[in-house]
Amino acid sequence: MTIRKIVLIQPGRDGRKLGRATSEPYTLMRLASLVPLDIPVEIWDEDLMRLPIETLGKGDLVGITAKTLLIDRAKAMSRRIQQQGATVVMGGTHTTLVPEEVEGWADAIAVGEGYRTWPQIIRDFDAGALQSRYVDEEWAPLDSGVANLQDRVLNMVDEHRNYWTPYLEITRGCPRSCTFCTAIRVSGQKMRLRPVEEVVEEIERRKLRRFFLTDDNFGLNFRLFPDYMEKLFRALAKLPLDGWTAQAEQMVADYPDLLDLAREAHLDKFFIGFESINPGNRKELGGKARGDVVKSKQVIATVQKHGIGVVGLFVYGFDSDTPDIFPTAWEWIKDSGLDSVSATILTPYPGTVQRRELLAQGRILPHDTWEKYNTNHVTYVPAQMTVEELQNGYDWLCRRLYSPSQIAVRGLRAWKRHWPDRARQRMFSSFSTDVGYRWETAHRLRKTHESLTGKS
Ligand code: B12
Ligand code: SF4
């Protein structure tokens, strides 16, 4: 069979906000860039467009990516596409975590990374020899050009017009083993690095002024690869960037010289996984956080002293948490000096140690859709609270955290730190993270209200 065209689909969730979508289809941009230039390729992002599935037919190869919460949507889409005569390949987080669930309703599945399997899938489809399952969990080195974005893909996506924040990957993987983490199944436990020259070239070619790093634990490289980090920061310092954000753990505070270099490299804020303010949850946190509230405050102050903002990431519902965790967390966070806050409910994703344990204890709640696996719904029976106590306590906390007055307090505090030299560039970023979480919370609470009252 000769390929007519390749279409890559990102199922939608949030639509546009003020004209742009929040989730850039970076995964698909990378996969589209692996397609040989003589084969037409399109990216369809359901947040931006109605998907013209009726135009698909025989000879079309359709790749769909989906996290767990969007897998049901992907399934419905796959069925419609197959009815058109096109061929569907499913990949991404959920497929990697539970391949046996997905392979029943796609022509082929890609488990793990796509750098080697996706080009193979294209070749096999073209030769009429598509297999049903492709696996790559060997964690290909990122210094062989696999991460580069093609110009035709950048032109097609038009990222500055269509998306709020461009994404970029510089390193990938995390050697830790938090019991609730799925990212390590998707990106591996071996840290891999892109060549600094390649990263700089991509930032310049994409004309990026701001970006969000998709790296799961960029900060851990302060300890693992300090020379690489120094080289990276010195190179980024020369670029005309307004600011960028990265995920990290608390130990970045132990590296003052690298923090200074990071600030000069225009790093604006770290998303730091504090995870819990309850030391009883230590064993579930893979050695990176210990629920030590005194240390956490010191970390926030140290990182901020070096001119970098801190977004605190917290998870609620671990086995040592009781209903008191919510008022305690609220008081602590108010007083913590954090610039923004992300609160999530523990979510036992398939493929995690956590889920295996909860299943063995009969504590996973029955579900007929994966939609609730979005980190703000309770999907299991907590150890020391009822399901309602966890959900209501969490909603109570979110209402307080994302009230306009709290967002203003945290945002102004962050913005003041950049006064006067970088105040203009940092105006947007000082408030944007919290405002995004507020949108998400308001949307969720509205949906809950509608489902309870039957009104929309
Ligand atoms: C960037 C990111 C986001 C971005 C959006 C990304 C997007 N476009 O949807 C933001 C910040 C908005 C976000 C939000 C959320 N995210 Co997120 N996110 C990530 C992160 C950090 C990186 C993903 C990424 O772009 N990587 C870079 C690309 C190049 O790699 P990749 O996606 O892994 O793709 C490779 C392979 O997987 C494979 N592949 C993937 N798809 C396909 C398809 C085919 C056909 C083939 C052949 C191959 C293939 O090939 C690619 C190249 O090798 C991951 C963590 C991780 N490491 O996966 C979490 C992660 C995907 N997110 C997660 C979650 C839970 C969420 C939220 C629900 C969080 C929340 N509380 O709201 C929301 C959901 C939003 C939504 N609309 O879906 C979970 C998903 C868990 C699960 N089982 O589903 C992850 C794994 C993090 C975690 N907690 O463990 N996220
Ligand atoms: S530190 Fe982060 S990326 Fe690493 S295992 Fe823990 S949750 Fe996953």
Looking at this protein, list some descriptive labels.
456 residues, alpha/beta, Rossmann fold, pyruvate-formate lyase- activating enzyme, 2 domains, six-stranded parallel sheet, 18 helices, globular, binds cobalamin, binds iron/sulfur cluster
Write the layout of secondary structure elements.
Blueprint: E1 5-10, E2 16-17, E3 20-21, H1 26-32, E4 41-45, E5 60-65, H2 71-83, E6 87-91, H3 93-97, H4 99-102, E7 108-112, H5 117-126, E8 133-136, H6 151-157, H7 159-162, E9 167-168, E10 171-172, H8 183-187, E11 192-193, H9 196-205, E12 210-213, H10 221-224, H11 226-237, E13 243-248, H12 256-264, E14 267-275, H13 293-305, E15 309-316, H14 325-334, E16 340-345, H15 353-360, H16 387-401, H17 404-417, H18 423-453
The chain binds cobalamin and iron/sulfur cluster.
The site of iron/sulfur cluster has 13 residues, from helix 8.
Describe the structure.
The chain is of the alpha/beta class. It folds into two domains: 5-136, Cobalamin-binding domain (Rossmann fold), CATH 3.40.50; 165-446, Alpha-Beta Horseshoe (pyruvate-formate lyase- activating enzyme). Helices cover 40% and strands 16% of the residues. It has helices at 26-32, 71-83, 93-97, 99-102, 117-126, 151-157, 159-162, 183-187, 196-205, 221-224, 226-237, 256-264, 293-305, 325-334, 353-360, 387-401, 404-417, 423-453; strands at 5-10, 16-17, 20-21, 41-45, 60-65, 87-91, 108-112, 133-136, 167-168, 171-172, 192-193, 210-213, 243-248, 267-275, 309-316, 340-345. The strands form four sheets. The chain has a six-stranded parallel beta sheet, sandwiched between helices. Strands 9-12-13-14-15-16 form a six-stranded parallel beta sheet, with helices on both faces. Strands 2-3 form a two-stranded antiparallel ribbon. α5 links the parallel β7 and β8. α11 packs parallel to α12. The longest helix has 31 residues, at 423-453. The model has no long low-confidence stretch (mean pLDDT 94). Bound molecules: cobalamin and iron/sulfur cluster. Iron/sulfur cluster binds next to α8.
